[in-house]
Task: structure prediction
Amino acid sequence: MTDAPTLTRPPSGQFIAMTLFAAIMLDILPWQGTWLLLRPDFVLLLLLYWAIHQPLRIGMATAWGLGLVMDVADGALLGQYALAYTFAIYLALTLHRRIQAFGLWPQAWHIFPLLLVSQILALLTHLLSGATFIGWGYFLASITGALFWPPLSLLVQLALKHRYLPDVAYTTSRGSEK
Amino acid sequence: MDHQPFFKRGPSPKTRLAFFGLLAIALMVTDARFNQLDLLRQGVGLALHPLQQIANSPLTLSRRAGEFFVTQSQLADEITRLRQQQLGNAIQLQLNQSLQAENAHLRRLLSTRKSLTSQSTTAEVMSAGRSPFSRKIIVDKGSSSGIQAGQAAIDDRGLVGQVTRLQLLSSEITLITDKGQAVPVEVVRNGVRAIAFGHGRNNTLELAFMPVNMDIQNGDQLITSGIDGTYPRGVPVAIVSQIERNAGDPFARITCTPSSGLDRYRSLLIISVSESPPAALPPVKKHAKEAQ
Result:
C-alpha cells in the first residue's frame, strides 16, 4: 500500500493541474446545510497532497492563487482562503519529509492539525470581518478532511500508476524522466 | 531543518510565507475598506462561471429527470389545485385592479407622483454559497441582464434578500438572514414600523430597538414598509415567532421567522424600484395616508 509511490514516475504538470481542477469542481458542487459543514476542503487536501509529494513544484504560490479562486467562488473577503491555504502549505512544506515517512493512516493524523490550522485562520478572518461563530460543527470539516486523506491519496496514486506505467512510449517521448 | 541549503531553491519558505501572507492580508484590507478589487473579482468570477454551471448540472439534470417521471395523476391533481388557486387569484386580481384604478384616480387628484412601480427579472439559484458563515446565494443573472446592485430578490412567498455584488453573468444575493442585513418592515395588523435584522446564525430575524411596551404579538405578519426606496412596499418578510420582554432591558427581544423559503427555492424574482427618491417620499406618504 505504502510502497506504491516508489513505483510511480513523477507526475506531469498537466496531471497535477487536472487533479486540482477536479478538486475545485468538487468544492463548488451545490453543498447545503449539514453537507456543507461536513464537506472536506478538497482543494486544500489536494494542495497538501502535492506539497508533500512534489514540494518543488506545488508550493505557496499555487496555494495562494487557488485560495483566491476559492475566495471568489465563496463570495468571501478576497485573500481569506489565500492566507489560510498559504499557511497550511507552509506547514506541509516544512513537515513533508516527516509525513512522507509514514503510512496513509498515520499521515491522516498529521493532516488533521494542518486542516485545523487553516480552518482556524479562516475563522479568525471571518470573526474579524464581523461574522458570528457558527458553532463547533464548523470544525467537522477538518475531521472529514483527515478521514478523506487515505482514500484520496490512494486514488491519486492509482491514477498515476494507471497513467504512467502501461504506456512507456508516452512518457519517454515527453522526456519527463530526469 | 535545512539551515544551509545545498541546492539553491529561491527564497526560503519563511520568506515566501511572509510574502504571500502579507499579500493576502493586504488584499483583505483593501477588499474590506476600499472597494477597489471588483475588477479582479469579476475576472476570476467570469472564469469560474462555466465551472459553477457544470458543477450544478447533475442537480439540474436529476431535477429535470424527476420532472419527466411525474405520474399523470399527480399532474392532474396539480392542475385542479392550480385551477382552484387561479380562480381565487382572479377574484383578488379583479379587486386589485379596481383598487389600483381608484388609487391612481385619487393620486391624480392629489397630483402626487405615481406610486413606485417595479420591473422584474427571473433568476435561478446557481449555488448556495460555499461558506457556512455567510447567508448568501449566487444566481445566474448578472449585469448583462440589467440587474443592478441593491435590487431586491423575492420568491413566491416573500422577501429573500438583496443583490449585493454584481458580475457579468451572475450576481450575489445576501439573504435577509445574513448578519447585519437590515430590512425596514411594518406590522400588517397595526402599521407599527420597525427594522428587521438578520441573525447570521440560524434562519431567524430580529426586530431591533422595539420598546418593551410596543404592541406586537406572536404571529404578527411583517411586510416591507418601502420607505427606504430599496424594497417595494408590501412584500411579506417574516412572522413574529417569539417575544421576550425583560424588565431590565429597555428593548424587547423579538424573533421572527422569514416567510420566504430561504433554503428551499430554486428560482426567484429580482425586482427593482424604478423611482427611489428618499427625500421626496415623506410628503407622498402623508398624502397617501390622508387619502386612505
Residues 4-173 of chain A form one domain. Residues 104-128 of chain A form the longest helix (25 residues). DSSP finds nine helices and no strands in chain A.
